[in-house]
Specification:
Order of helices and strands: H
Strand content: under 5%
Length: 87
Amino acid sequence: MDNTRFIENETFHQSVLIQEQDDQLQSLYGTARNIHDIATTMRDEIEDQNMLLDEFGEHTDCTSNRLEHAMKKVKYIIKANEGAFSI
């Protein structure tokens, strides 16, 4: 009779331990899922930011080229008029 009671008691304890492990694994899965969702959101945000930075870089390059062209015109005008205002 003692063996039967011991086996029943051990079986019960094992069932409790398995249930606790299942609960912990479920919690761990939830945490991992949250981390995955956060990482996915971060990836999407980084991709959006990279696209904005690329567009900004293109606009900056265009503006820089226009400014460089304007500066060449100003230098040409200054050079062409160097002797015109001599006293």
